[in-house]
Amino acid sequence: MVLTVKQEMSGKNIAEVPSIPRRRSKPEVFADILKSINNEIKANEVAKMTAVSKAVSIPYGRFQTYVYMLAEKGLVQINTVGNHEELSVTAKGKQFLVEFEEKYLNALKFLETFSLT
After folding, report:
1. FRET label pair with 116: which of 62, 72, 84, 110, CA 20 to 30 Å apart?
2. pTM score, two decimals?
3. Average model confidence (pLDDT) across the chain
């Protein structure tokens, strides 16, 4: 049996098969972290590590790795206040978000027009 684009082995149309959500790329995860830091600051005047980790749905250990890397690259600032760490987005981090929106997302839209994502 030769499968067409419209069928799978069971004979169901592909449209009937639920789609699996696409995993976020690292740039998308980084942008989500930066956006969530900004959102937490707007909502609560402070962005704590745990709250941002939950907002972006990343396990805390992996989230810490990403945040420390973003801090090392100058996109995030980490301040220790009492017994917790507070996060803020630097000017470089804000520039990343602007360019991410302009370039990366436009590239994804371009690829989607040709069904290449």
Report:
1. 62
2. 0.77
3. 86
